[in-house]
Design a protein that fits this description.
By secondary structure, the chain is α/β, with parallel strands linked by helices. It folds into 2 domains: 309 residues, 3-Layer(aba) Sandwich (Adenylosuccinate Synthetase, Chain A, domain 1); 96 residues, Adenylosuccinate Synthetase, subunit A, domain 2, CATH 1.10.300.10. It starts with 13 loop residues before the first strand and ends in a 6-residue tail after the last strand. The protein contains 12 helices and 18 strands. The radius of gyration is 22 Å and the shape is globular. The protein binds guanosine-5'-diphosphate, 6-O-phosphoryl inosine monophosphate (IMO) and magnesium ion (MG). Magnesium ion binds next to loops. Magnesium ion (MG) binds next to loops.
């Protein structure tokens, strides 16, 4: 039975979901699943570099900017000021969702303080990666880094700036001059035209206007009315600009510290922190990955887990679960509980390794220290109860809990909303 969030005597609860690895942990699926408990879902950082996959009754959808609660028609979805926003991409995603029969009208809101992503950000992102050659970051090429740079340098154009057209155009021209100088003279590529920059902003203003809302105030009012909300992280803890594997990170803070500034609410209004963790590890793009596998087992994870990026389609690098890193991430984020996803992908493995520590080898490289656990026979695919799991699978989950000192609330056993074991209600 569905929980009735409108009941006045039920205290609202703000539940945070963040990825604890390098992204693609299955956040979208779990946000969609848990949205039945809330009246609102909000994004607080990142942009359309995210790709969150939802599978409901066999139908797959990938969301990049729109919060993953959108399929629940009574629920409001919000984009907080910490998100960098590409208007053409937002509206093409809205059209796609609407074409699939989901109404968005009156239930998607955007902060007036979101910084806009413009075409020169995208060109800068791609041209810099080309120039870096072998040292490239492996970005998604969506202009995320350059857009956040403009925000920090106080040069960004915000959503609210669209409504003072003369000043908007004047600043757009100045920014364009500045970025075209770098594009042409330093990065040796063609400049972005004024027309292209204008076309990606002003034509969307009228459609955007009814969606603009003070998201911080909205969240506070909802909480005061006793309504619950989900705070949907994008990327993962190890891609955090401060606490991740710098410089191979994204350009925002992905850890829970970003929530308050990214949507305008106080930290004490957050009640529960759920870390979404894949039963193994993947990474897309460059950068260190201590437990990466280059052998048949790595291939097995890639194939069984269908590990291709939801945004760029790039193959994801695969490896064992890094419980050593997870323990630190749990501490950094005050995690209340874990959700382990893609357990079914480990079906059929003879043994499962889990990294419990790092040691320095003689040449100075970081090498993982592993515990070896037995795999299981048969399949956990689609399991809905712990009783459906072989003893070895339960043993693996218990080992993760013990290594991190955090309890597991949810286990995901397949891509569909229903392929889930709920052990504790994170809203209770
Ligand atoms: P996100 O970015 O964290 O939302 O994750 P992505 O959507 O980028 O990648 C997760 C992928 O795994 C998607 O294709 C999901 O449909 C799929 N997925 C999620 N949970 C499970 C699971 O428990 N088992 C399997 N086999 N696939 C899952
Ligand atoms: P979701 O929300 C996985 C990675 C890129 C690259 C680095 C920097 O689906 O988990 P950027 O374009 O952000 O400047 O790229 O971050 N990256 C992601 N990897 N999942 C994501 O999002 C990612 N968003 C960015 O591959 O290594
Ligand atoms: Mg993803």
């Amino acid at each position: 039975m569905e929980y009735d969030f409108r009941k006045k005597n039920i205290m609202g609860k703000n539940v945070v979901l963040i990825g604890t690895q390098w992204g693609d942990e299955g956040k979208g699926k779990i946000v969609d699943l848990l949205t039945r408990n809330v009246s609102g879902v909000v994004r607080f950082q990142g942009g359309h570099n995210a790709g969150h996959t939802l599978v409901v009754e066999g139908k797959k959808r990938v969301l990049h900017l729109i919060p993953s609660g959108i399929l629940h028609e009574a629920v409001t979805c919000m984009i907080g000021n910490g998100v960098v926003l590409s208007l053409p991409d937002l509206f093409s995603e809205i059209s796609e969702i609407q074409d699939s029969g989901v109404s968005i009208s009156g239930r998607l809101f955007v902060s007036p303080n979101c910084a806009l992503i413009l075409p020169y950000h995208v060109e800068l992102d791609k041209a810099r990666e080309r120039k870096l050659g072998k040292q490239k970051i492996g970005t998604t090429g969506r202009g995320i880094g350059p857009a956040y740079e403009d925000k920090i340098s106080r040069r960004a154009l915000l959503v609210r700036d669209l409504f003072d057209e003369p000043s908007f155009l004047e600043r757009l021209e100045l920014n364009l001059d500045y970025h075209n100088f770098v594009l042409e003279k330093y990065l040796e590529c063609p400049p972005v035209s004024y027309g292209a920059a204008v076309d990606s902003t002003l034509p969307y203003r009228d459609k955007l206007e009814p969606m603009i809302k003070d998201i911080g105030r909205e969240l506070s009012e909802r909480r005061n009315r006793g309504e619950s909300a989900i705070f949907e992280g994008a990327q993962g803890a190890l891609l955090d600009i401060d606490h991740g594997t710098y410089p191979f990170v994204t350009s925002s803070n992905t850890n829970v510290g970003a929530i308050s500034s990214g949507c305008g609410i106080g930290p004490r209004s957050l009640d529960y922190f759920l870390g979404i963790t894949k039963a193994y590890t993947t990474r897309v793009g460059e950068g260190p990955f201590p437990t990466e596998l280059f052998d048949a087992e790595g291939k097995h994870l890639a194939v069984a887990g269908n590990e291709f990026g939801s945004t760029t389609g790039r193959p994801r690098r695969c490896g064992w679960l890094d419980a050593h890193a997870l323990k630190e991430v749990a501490q950094l984020n005050s995690l209340s509980g874990l959700c382990i996803t893609k357990l079914d992908v480990l079906d059929g493995l003879e043994k499962i390794l889990v990294c419990v520590d790092y040691k320095k080898s003689l040449n100075g490289n970081t090498e993982p220290v592993y515990d070896e656990l037995p795999g299981w026979e048969g399949s956990v695919s689609g399991a809905k109860s712990m009783d459906d799991l072989p003893a070895e699978a339960r043993n693996y989950l218990e080992r993760i809990e013990n290594l991190c000192g955090i309890k597991i609330d949810i286990v995901s056993t397949g891509p569909d909303r229903e392929n889930t074991i709920i052990l504790h209600n994170v809203f209770s």
